[in-house]
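Q: What would this chain look like folded?
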Amino acid sequence: MKHVKGYLFSVALIALLQALICVKSLWADTLIAWDFAGYTGEEITVEAEVVHSFLAKTDSSFLIRRGPGIRHAPNNDRFNANNWTEADLSSAMDKGDYFEWEVYPVPGSVLQLTSVSLQIERSSTGPSCFTLRSSLDGFSEDLGSWEITTSSQNITVDLNSIPATESRLIFRLYGYGNTYTAGS
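A: My prediction, written as structure tokens:
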């Protein structure tokens, strides 16, 4: 059985999602990466441009997408959203106010992620609070949670608490605490 040790690295997320997710292996190979340059911000999903051979292709793998509670909104070179309406995490989870992406190792491989780096950008009226969760526990435990008071902030989350998996792993970045639904 192959063992892939890696980093879920750099989800350029914004309440408008700007840059990339890269998963890196033990040998520093990029396993998955998104680049939103040239996008309008209104795309329904965006497929990763770089995908390592350790990751399996499924109908929804390699895509970054919005939850059902938020809407796509124009903002060049980003994967943007507005209609963030929830004041707290529980409400954001109930309404589907999140960005989502997944990784899935090919059969016979085990994926061990060690960190995720996020670049979160927000407008002055967009969500100020963000929480990262995974499907491994049914999205019940925080992997990280932050209040963002500036327009842009870089964050790295330790994922060593996530056990190695042979299964599909979905990540959701919930946004809440905005002051205006048009905020992104």
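The CA atoms of residues 130 and 175 lie 5 Å apart.
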